[in-house]
Amino acid sequence: MNVYITKMNGVSWNPLQSRQRMTAEIAHGLDCREMGIFCYNGNAESEESLRTRLDGIVAGLSWGEDVVVCQFPTGNDSRFDRGLLERLKVYLVRMIFFIQNSEELVRGSIQARIPERIKLYNQAEALIVPSLSMRQFLLDNGIRKDMKFVIQEMWDYTIDKNTIYSPQFRKEIHFTCNGGINGLNNWNYAIPLKLYADSGIQGQNVHYIGGLSKGELISRLSKGGFGLVWYQDEDTRQGMEYDVSFDLARYLAAGIPVIVPAGISNQALIEKNHLGLVVDSLEAAVTAVESMEKSEYQGYIQSVGRFAPAIRKGYYTKKCLVDAVIAICRRDAGEIAVPAKIYDSGEHAFTYAVLKESYGDNLALSWNYSGKADGFLIYDTSGKLVYETRNVYQHYFLMKGCGKEIGFTVKAYVDTLKGKMILAESEQVCLQKERYNHASVSLIIPAYNAEEHIARSIDTALAQSLLDLEIIVVNDGSTDHTQIIIEWYAEKYTNVIAIRQENGGPAAARNTGIIRAGGEYIGFLDSDDMIRPEMMKRLYEAIKKNGSDIAITSAYYIKNGKYQAFIQYMLQEDTVVDTDEFIQLHYIKGSGFGVVVWNKLYRSSLVKAHLFPVLFQEDEAWIPYILSYTEKITYLNDCSYEYDRTTYNSTLAENLEKRSIEERFHTYKKAVTFYLENGNPKRVGLLKELAGERLTGKLRAYGYSEYGEFWEQIQETF
């Protein structure tokens, strides 16, 4: 058996060709043979010429014996790629694809081409992909379930160690990437930025070095400072979640620490090996560099010094190639090895797990985990790893293309020097018959043009550990496929009720749900948010135990994959809190954030007697109004509601931003007027105090005199 590796040729200067050449050179050290592929203008090449060229490329292969590692892309068009694979199949060779353009695959501009790429990749026995997230992306988009994967994790950057210096402590940043930097027209920081490529960045402290040879560039970088890996636009930022950066390898090979954006695919590797700074913004990066002491920098240099030799000698590439060849020779290869033994300290446990049918012939797996972890692994009943996530907040995963007879297990793990250590394992869950009898709680979901996310929201509602839960989805005049989706759930599940009405806004939709609700208590869920599996049960038990009118939970604010706890109160949990005290502490004297309807469970009789006003941004009017009629409140700091701004309707946000200050004032005026005129007369003084605090605050914030004048009118009227 001989192993061949393809290599792009014929391009005067191309980063992809440089990477493929380096990969092929490293492969030579493993006795791999080179299969050169020249880049041609495919449109100008006749079928006969293409056949002749392909025959020449594969002429050295032995029939039925050899392995070919195809580096993709080849630099040619899809017609060439299809022809090459057909020739390789004629020779009955075994194929491994080394995918090196992952960033392009996830860009919105080429989504239509994904099926073509998937069809191409499915002809391989094994795929070398940059990251676990890319593996999952391919599986979600149609890659064979039995495909064997090898995770690249890091590029190599082969150099002669004699060309590098010992890095010195320098407060400067190097940038070797082509293209601009997102959000920056000018570099106005005290830290100098040194450019080695055409990046379009300007500024007083920008130093343009220009293009250098590989040796000159490494020598200059190795003198000290930080290497910056950053994104040019939203497409490249998203691509970094799946791909691995060649510039990252270059900086580390030069021996200097790096600065990377949070969310990059190898963030965990950088953090755990202390290779540099992972930051949310360039401002944060500059601040960290400015405040850094020499001893801290030397700590990074020592860590990079331990890590870099493997990159300089090509060991990441060697490992990928060896693992891929072994994978196609072994039936059990391609799975991520995790020890079966569970280290049980008694502090980590899965308290709940459930599997439900989801829209689109999918399965929705949900779980609740208590304790610390570095990530979760999901296995099917055969023991095959289906999914891995390092999102320790995750509690829901959508299984696509799985049979309904299959079951799943979730395992929580932490990373150790010897690999992953399992801390806890859920029970194996399969699809089960419904056990719904009656409604103790009614959960109302208003939906308008929510086809992209409504299934996920309903899935998390169905996953609740509270069995006596009624789910009422009100389609508020949607013009997309929302109705089709919610009707599917209503037909599948006896506790899901689908209601359709003409568009009237969220308040009207909630009122429709309230009127229909049969539960003793009522909750609300927005169609683009999620709730954690124990939320309804925890709130229900707390409100019953304490005899309260409302039970409240804290929440997570999610944006760009980051979770931030909010709507948290300095209150004793799971006990009775007087309503007047709550309003004083958290709406008048406090920040008042949390004027939202969805993180609460309400006594049904209370809500049915006090419906929503049909106003714009009705939360501002209804929350003070409904609170004025309550006596007891209970609070749980569970963060069990997930307010997901990743899926937020950007058009709605833009429309809100475009509203003039006058329009915003009149919207708020209607809200205040409503709760003052309709609130509990016994608490009109408290509501008036709340209005005064809010209006004077807005007057200070916006300088719009109408707020002050309205407050004077309130003082005279109420």
Automatic annotation (TrEMBL):
Gene3D superfamilies: Glycogen Phosphorylase B, Spore Coat Polysaccharide Biosynthesis Protein SpsA, Chain A. Residues 442-608 form the Glycosyltransferase 2-like domain. It holds the Pfam family Gtf3_N. Residues 182-324 form the Glucosyltransferase 3-like C-terminal domain. InterPro entries: Glyco_trans_2-like, Gtf3_C, Gtf3_N, Nucleotide-diphossugar_trans. Keywords: Glycosyltransferase, Transferase. Residues 2-154 form the Glucosyltransferase 3-like N-terminal domain. GO terms for molecular function: glycosyltransferase activity. PANTHER family: GLYCOSYLTRANSFERASE, GLYCOSYLTRANSFERASE EPSH-RELATED. This is Glycosyltransferase. It comes from Schaedlerella arabinosiphila.
